[in-house]
Write a structure and sequence with these properties.
The complex is a heterotrimer of chains A (about 270), B (about 350) and C (about 300). Chain A is an all-alpha fold and about 270 residues long. Chain A is built from 14 helices and no strands. Chain A is globular, with a radius of gyration of 23 Å. The chains are: A mainly alpha (about 270), B alpha+beta (about 350), C mainly alpha (about 300).
Chain lengths: ~270, ~350, ~300
Amino acid sequence: MTRRRVLPGLPLSLGITLVYVGLIVALPLAALAVKAASLGPEDYWRIVSSPRAVASYRVTALSAATATAFNLVFGLSLAWVLVRYRFPGKRLVDAIVDLPFALPTAVAGIALTTLFAPNGWFGSILAPFGVKVAYTPLGIMVAMSFTSLPFIVRTVQPVLEDLDPALEEAAQSLGGSDSEIFLRVILPLLTPALLAGVSLAFARSLGEFGAIIFIAGNQPMETEITALLSFIRLEEYDYQAAAAIASVLLITAFAMLAVTNLLQARALRYTGRS
Amino acid sequence: MKIRLDHVVKTFDTFRAVRDVSLEIGSGELVALLGPSGSGKTTILRMVAGLEYSDAGTIHFGEQDATAIPVRDRGVGFVFQHYALFPHMTVAENVAFGMKVSKVKRGRAEIDRRVGELLDLVRLSGLGGRFPTQISGGQRQRVALARALAVDPKVLLLDEPFGALDANVRRELRRWLREIHEALGITTLFVTHDQEEALDLADRIVILNEGRIVQQGTPEQVCRSPNSAFVTQFLGDANRLEASIRDGRARIAGGEIAAPGVTDGRAEVFVRPSDLDWSDTGGIPATVTRVIDRPENRRILARLGDGTSLELDVPPETAVRSQDIGFVRIRRANVFPLS
Amino acid sequence: MSTPPSRRKPPRVGDGPLIRRSLIGFVLVVGALLVLSPLLVIFVQAFSAGTAAFKAVILHPDTLHAIGLTVATALIAVPVNTAFGIAAAWAITKFDFPGRRLLLVVIEIPFSISPIVAGVAYLFVYGLQGLFGPALQAADVKILFALPGIVLASMFVTAPFVARELIPLMQAQGRDLEEAATSLGASGWRTFFSVTLPNIRWALLYGVVLCNARVMGEFGAVSVVSGNIRGQTNTLPLHVELLYHDYQTAGAFAAASTLTLLAIVTIIAKVLLERQGAGRSGRPALAAPAPAQGSKP
């Protein structure tokens, strides 16, 4: 291999990049880690394993899992419908899928709360059936479902578009029924994209704040999410507790990144070079 | 299984891909659909498979009308141009797919045994655990064939089966496919744009142009008696000369050849380079413009008195140089009247 | 004799009328409930107290100040972020250096991190109990609970936006054009402005539009570092929260409706830019298989 001509600008562009990443991203995260570490193992454990904190992990993780499961089904259906079918209003639907990305989370939060409050459009319909959404864990799930809605659609859609039609034809010519072809051929080929979308949606739900605090009711032990608990500790000037709880979210985010990369590498092992 | 197409028509939007094609393929025959791109050959193959519905006409498998039978019930084995192997399945899983989804339930051991047999047949034993990305193009082609054969198809359909392969792999696979055909005797239809491939492999060749069959017959028939200018030119290099016909003789730029049975008037004459001789003594006068040397012969590029260019293949020892003046003799030619 | 089939195309998986109709129905109903109705309720509520009340909220000094602060934040954070995105994409796609892949991962980190964590992390850098806090106070430099803090937190949250649009595109375009330009004697800047930039302009604009929407709408990180001082450090999303918690629902929605308009404009810009080939790697929507006609060359 011949040595390639080197373009100009490496020191400048790499310098800017490293300074920016260092100052804007790495420094604060390091400061947070240092602060949390300064607690010492016993204090740290006491704070992060307090009943109120554990309850917040449970409600956050369960709601995020439910919202992600919902979006797995809905996002896959939406991607399928947008790629495979033609119907009036399709382009509008395609555009509006991005609304949860574009709409500030606080705005989404007050809108969803107003819709699902007992006197709201949906709340008043659900109330006679004894279904309460606003100020319950269900409300948290609704808010998380809304804010993480585009992730799965937007990761699956391009893969579905690029799926070679000949694969489906081959499966049909070999005698496969629709459901067999979907389960054995199409779904496995979408799996890496689904995994990527699921992990993005789940991570977003775990960290979501703005949309949730309005609709959640924020009762400690019941409808208090982890991000809010850290925020509350901050307002109580309990900086170490805020740091400890924020560090739990941070560690979870990094663990999720690692797991996702592993799962995706596994799901894509068939593309491996010999 | 005999296949019969009656007056089949297919139009895509405004493009008329297939116009009134009728065709019979005998049981156990190996037939090539040969034509340039856009001639409708792949569309015909896909209609036989049920991957495309015809707009009019019928397709019979044996005595059964298969026109409306969906692809999954048609019992065809289809080998796709780029193989369409399932990338997330191993070679063995690809081959087993058809048996796993079949209405005929087979035990796991039976499927494994059959996969083993098929991989032996296509000489890929030992590669069952690889993924399609981990094997060569020629090996993928053979996996695609094994996968199609696994469902015991009544008919085997191949779309440009060797199109994506290197020339030497191609030749070897062709001979091998012919052996498999002889061993299994499955009615086989394949599509190609490469006349050499069709002539090498097929019992019978169906030549298509612009959605119509222009000629069909054995390789010998289409080579020796092409019925049109298109077929003559499509099957191989040919010089085109204009001529006028009178009393069964064609006059060409200062020469004359026999053209029995051709009506009087203007005509075009096609002569393959190997059917021309170079001579110092008699024939049509010509000037050599260039000599190209090849392993098997020399090709002379020459110009006739009326400016027509000709190419002729002569034995390598022929002494000839650029700007030499000599004569061209036509040994064999195909003459078609110009309407 | 059989009649020719009426369908022009054999059915693909999922083309059965039952599955097709129920899927489209499911998607439209859930989409209307979950996405469209929040949009509607914002505008209905915004005007629920009448147009005059709407105007009064929008023109209230606190609202105008919040709008001003939000715009100021975007005017600083977005260009800085864009410069960073271009620099990062140039470094990562035009050169090979050790740690390139790691850098890619690090740039994407803010996507996976809760904005609250980002805000809290910034407190421990610039806050009184943080690394530089005491020194900053001694020098009488205010970062937290002021514009610089808001800008910094917004930059954290949106750090990957521009870079992630440019990197895949510039990766795909390779280095040949730039190498050709420099071999013809063009300077680095000249090469960038006349060779690279024209090829990436739509993707760049796309990243900028998305980055801007996120900066203007950011809530969690900003609410930690701003201190929520009415008329001083309230950005528009924080102002919405404040009005809402003051039980001024119509006012909150009136302020929210301006942000909603921004979201709608963003989506329209996104659709238009996608038509220019930006976003989703400029893939054409190949929903249907190309009709197989004849053979490949």
